[in-house]
Amino acid sequence: EVAYFGAGPAPLPTPVLEQGAKAFLNYENTGLGLAEISHRSPTANKILADTRAGLTTLLDIPSNYDILFMHGGGSGEFSAVVFNMVAVWVENRRRRAESELNGDSDKILERVRQEVRRDLRLDYLVTGSWSLKASQEAASLLEPIGKDLVNIALDARKDNGGKFGSIPPEENWKLSPRQRGQGIESAFVYYCDNETVDGVEFPSFPKSLDPGLQDELEKPLVVADMSSNFLSRRVDVSKYAVIFGGAQKNIGITDVTLVIVRKDILSTIPPPSFLHALGIWSPPAILNWAVVAKNNSLYNTMPIFSIWIAGQVMKSLLAFHGDSKLAGQEELSNAKAKIIYDILDANSSTYQVVPHTSVRSRMNICFRVCKGDAAIEKEFLDGAESRMLQGLKGHRSVGGIRISNYNAVSMTNVEKLAEYLKDFAKKH
Ligand code: PLP
Q1: Of 306, 339, 373, which marks where a domain is finished?
Q2: Do the strands 257-262 and 200-201 form a parallel or antiparallel pair, or are they unpaired?
Q3: What is the pTM of this model?
């Protein structure tokens, strides 16, 4: 009877949980549970292949992309993005220098050494706590190579009284030039599609990053964190170099991170020697996308049970929405979020939504009760608890209330919460 709206780990569809309990104990009558078998067994291989196939179907992933299962969560990918994409940038410069300097290895090394310090940039759009953390991780990793290599192309707090909650117009973003191999050049543009703590979601793919609108040579390599809105709407994967997300919100349980990466990026991640000669780290093996891809995501021991759960969640989405796939899920997610936002807006003296209307997240609905009055917000949470509505406390860094509306949150539970929101507003 508990209706849970926590921000993650989050609920799973009940049938997946029931099948999961069986599979944990005795998988397909083999006498062994899924956490008890080798990650190199044929069973494990089939689970990886099925889960990849489910994701490919749901997102229409083009054939020039690979799907990796990795360790380390979203936070691990904050580092992996920097390690791998800087290595790709360096390798592209090395190839160019090699062709221009007739293979003179000392000159090549010297030229790329200068270029790294002078030209390398990593662009971050900071729209909330998670993209901020990712940009800070990048700055920390790059510190030994050079300062100011991280370009904060957008800090959304600046136009919003020091707080997250808006995405300023694209003409105000300060993206680095992308000139393919010369001058200052960004290795990638990074953004977080849905900011879980702050309730800010990009309404759509940013126009200024859209390859279709730009000269092919200036096409930015776009990296997106979709940890908290993965599989909640359609995504044109072909616009991205890399998409990643931890599984524990919309895809399954914790322990596995999904990475969708373009194959030409994988084939440009160089072996360590040139990077080492420049004094730059080579990506650590378990964060090295090329190593993980080459080993079919089995470079080291992977949590097969978690990957199986993710596969079952994908299967259940496909079964539920049929041919409409993620268009169906998008409609449902929008409808559930609208029910809540409509009540909040209709009772605006009781409830104040934190983010601006145009960037409100459909997944994490953040608001204050009576302008953040601590006693009334506590009363709100206690009253919800008494109706078995749980997980509503906002993130400790921002306070307030947060309703997480992930895929497995049922319409029935949204309606129960809607009733409570209305009843509480009548009292205040
Ligand atoms: N990115 C986003 C958008 C998140 O919501 C989270 C966690 O909640 C993370 C990254 C970090 O994920 P993890 O805890 O798997 O490292």
Answers
A1: 306
A2: unpaired
A3: 0.98
